[in-house]
Amino acid sequence: MFPRRRDALQRLGGTVLHNLGRRLVGCLACGALLAPLGSAGAFEVTIAPASPQTIYLQVGVGTFTGYYCGNNCQSYPPIPPNTPTPPIGTPGNNTTVNTVSVSVAAAAVGNRTAQTMTTNSTQSDSFYDGFAFCNAPAQLYIGGFYRTTASGNGSINVTATVPANLTDAAGDTLSFGTISWTSSGNDDTGAEPFPAATFAAGTVQTIGAIAQNQWAESCWTFSYANTTVPAAGTYTGTVTYTATTP
Amino acid sequence: MRLRSPSLLLIALPAVLPALAGTTRIDDSATLPYAAPLTVHWEQPSPRPPLNNFMRGTLTLRVKLNVAPWLRRSGRIYLTLPAQQPGPMFVSWVTQGHLLPGQLTSGSRTLVYSGPITTPFIEDTLELTLRVDGTRLQEQLYHVNFNFEMDE
To answer: In terms of CA atoms, which chain B residue is nearest residue A154?
Structure first.
């Protein structure tokens, strides 16, 4: 092989041309080898997150489609028979306004013994994991999540817009500041995301926070302070809870 | 000395050839859409346990590979996804049968064809699904580049 190649090159010309020819061959070979490394071709996919921010806030009853599938959710699609439809749980809109109330016996009005309130909410189970986290009607469920892209330790606040007073049909008033709540949850440990507090009458009050990409929930037990003797009647008022993304 | 130098070059070339000629990027510029938008959605809309922060999206690609330089030869074609922003990505695809279905992670490649090259172009329709950790995404677009490579 080698002698034949040398013979062929020799037929191209004299000594000088012979060497030049071999060097050109060597350079062309290098060029041919290097060209593919820089050649065209690279299709591109431009990714953009849809609805990168999602918030869900539930006070009392809520709506969720797709049930909890536990560890089977780790597989995609989730392993039957826990294949949820639609998948993995999607929050829905529930317009129900639950009430928390107490009827104070005439003999007990204003006796400074706090009166425990109950709710008409039937929601004890958490949509987080299906666990009976609260004890309705003694407790009111409050929970939700804040979904967002990007890493970090961000959170959103949940606020309560609290009127100054509850009122009755005659126009008598009772300060919202007479109502407070304790916070807990079955089998719960650590600080509550929505801790115990008393309504700050006539304000927008921060009542808790939800860390990003986490679910936060608590169970509230309300009580009426019962420290005054208001006119007899049914006193009502509405508190609106709000979660806002940045 | 002048005579020995070219000889050394010719001796060295066969040793270099397998490494350099082994992999060549294929011209896939006829692929449609060539710069495809892909909207990714949360796999788990709510952060319930076990927490899954992946987002995913699927798009259809009409892949057209110019394999004319390898006509009447045999080769192996790979889909490659170089490591790039926004970080680890997981891609899977199904095909119409001209190319192989498969999956890969960023920084790797997967065989999509092996055999003789009998036509100047290899075409197929890929339904490609991309998964990415949503917590790695900022409020911006990410241009993710794929390549097709030929191994001879």
So the answer is: B135
Does the predicted TM-score (pTM) go above 0.80? no
The string of pLDDT tens digits covering residues A169-217 is 999 999 999 999 999 999 998 999 999 999 999 999 999 999 999 999 9
Q: Report the C-alpha gap between B43 and A78 in whole angstroms.
A: 11
B13 contact residues in A (CB cutoff 8 A): 26, 29
Range list of H helices, B1-148: 4-21
Contacts of B68 (CB under 8 A, 6+ apart): B120, B121
Chain A CB contacts of B51 under 8 Å are 213
Across the interface, which of B27, B43, B145 has its CB nearest the CB of A40?
B27
Query: Judging by beta carbons within 10 Å of its beta carbon (0-12, 13-18, 19+), is residue B3 exposed, middle or buried?
Result: exposed
**Residue in B143, B85, B57 with CA at minimum distance from that of residue A49:** B57
Q: Where are the domains of chain B?
A: 24-151
Q: What is the pLDDT of residues B9-64, one digit of tens each?
A: 333 333 333 334 589 999 999 999 888 889 999 888 888 877 888 999 999 999 99
Q: Is B42 close to A73, i.e. CB distance below 8 A?
A: no
> How does DSSP classify residue B9?
H
Nearest to A146, CA basis, from A221, A61, A208: A208
Regarding an ipTM greater than 0.90, the answer is no
Mutate to test the interface with B, among A43, A63, A215 (most CBs of B within 10 A): A43
Q: By 3-state DSSP, what share of chain B in percent is helix, strand and coil, each rounded to 5? A: 15, 50, 35
Q: Which fold has domain B24-151?
A: Immunoglobulin-like (2.60.40)
The distance of Cα A23 from the centroid of its chain, to the nearest Å, equals 68
- How many other C-beta atoms are found inside a 10 Å radius of the C-beta of residue A148? 24
CA of A215 vs chain B CAs: smallest distance (Å): 6
Residue A242 to residue B117: CA distance in whole angstroms:
63
Q: Tell me if B128 and A150 make a contact (CB, 8 A cut-off).
A: no
Picking from B87, B32, B152, the residue whose alpha carbon sits closest to that of residue A36 is B152
| C-alpha distance from B26 to closest chain A C-alpha (Å) | 6
Residue B137 has its nearest CB partner, among A5, A33, A49, at: A49
